[in-house]
Write a structure and sequence with these properties.
GO biological process, one term: DNA restriction-modification system
Shape: elongated
CATH superfamily of the largest domain: DNA methylase specificity domains
Family: Belongs to the type-I restriction system S methylase family.
CATH topology of the largest domain: Adenine-n6-DNA-methyltransferase TaqI, Chain A, domain 2
Largest sheet: 5 strands, mixed
Protein name: Restriction endonuclease
Order of helices and strands: HHHEEEHEEHEEEEEEHHEHEHH
Strand order of the largest sheet: 2-11-7-9-4
Distance between the termini: 17 Å
Number of domains: 2
Number of strands: 13
Keywords: DNA-binding, Endonuclease, Hydrolase, Nuclease, Restriction system
Oligomer: single chain
InterPro entries: Restrct_endonuc_typeI_TRD, Restrct_endonuc_typeI_TRD_sf, Type-I_RE_S_subunit
Radius of gyration: 26 Å
Structural class: alpha+beta
């Protein structure tokens, strides 16, 4: 930590790049415990390495566990939302009895305000939102919101454009109590299904494989609402939709939650590692310890 701060303070930032010359770098006073007693110094260094290696190994184990759980989650999501012929009817997403797509629009990032009416910008769907949300990251003024297309409770908000094929049509189920504004390059899906069920369906290989045939564009990839409406979704009973959601919610919490799941545990272990690393390297300054 101290070395990183020293580099920031002593780097030559001319020309937009931060550079430290060899001569300057060689002047850094590296902390060495008990410099007058080499045997004791090496023993202390070895113990510091042993302690920090344990933290590193624990974080690696948790990361491997998270990777395994994500694979397990993907497998069960695809299995639970795959129905054999006759087990559940399949309907186009845009069929009248199922749902309809409404294009977003009317605001940009520059229109964000500190408070007002909640809004979702299509770019935030990739960076901020997961399967569902009940709060928005940003707001627009009430006067602008009156001109915007809005998502209601239970609607999906879908990013219809992306720089890569996997992310295009990433969706978030809006579960908040208030209507929210939706930006251009996104659309709203109003439907008669269980909201999270539809959002989970948008993550399946079944949806992805159907979506690919409708992707257009070169640098910017997109799927328009008319083509989204053609994609087939299995529609079991409401009870079955709820059962599937309950199972997938547990996996989603474990693999995605920054407050309860494995990502939170990894974050805490990383902070713990950084705390003890800085503490273990906090030796007396050069006045009492040689470099």
């Amino acid at each position: 930590h101290h070395f990183g701060e020293w580099c920031k303070e002593n780097a030559n930032k001319s020309g937009g790049l931060s550079i430290i010359g060899i001569k300057k770098l060689s002047s850094y006073k590296f902390p060495i415990p008990c410099p007058d007693n080499p045997e004791k110094s090496l023993a202390i260094q070895s113990e510091i390495v042993r302690i920090l290696d344990k933290f590193t190994a624990l974080t690696a184990e948790l990361t491997a566990e998270l990777t395994m759980r994500k694979k397990q989650y993907n497998y069960y999501r695809n299995q639970l939302l795959s129905f054999e012929e006759g087990a559940a009817p399949f309907y186009p997403l845009g069929q009248k009895e199922v749902g309809e797509f409404i294009r977003g629009g009317s605001f940009q990032k520059k229109d964000f305000t500190k408070s007002g009416v909640g809004c979702i910008h299509y770019g935030q769907i990739f960076t901020h939102y997961g399967t569902y949300a009940n709060k928005t990251k940003t707001f627009v003024s009430e006067s602008l919101a009156q001109k915007c297309r809005k998502a209601k409770t239970g609607n999906l908000v879908i990013a219809t454009t992306s720089e890569n094929d996997d992310d295009v049509c990433k969706a978030v189920a809006w579960l908040g109590t208030e209507d929210i504004a939706v930006s251009s390059d996104a659309c709203i899906y109003r439907h008669n299904l269980t909201p999270k069920y539809v959002s989970y369906f948008f993550q399946t290989e079944s949806f992805q494989s159907q979506k690919r045939q409708y992707i257009t564009g070169t640098k910017v990839r997109r799927v328009n609402a008319d083509n989204l409406a053609k994609i087939l979704i299995p529609v079991p009973s409401q009870e079955e939709q709820t059962r599937i959601v309950d199972i997938l919610d547990k996996f989603d919490l474990l693999t995605s939650s920054i407050s309860q799941g494995l990502p939170r545990e990894i974050e805490l272990r990383q902070k713990q590692y950084e705390y003890y690393r800085d503490l273990l390297f906090s030796f007396p300054r050069p006045e009492t310890a040689s470099n």
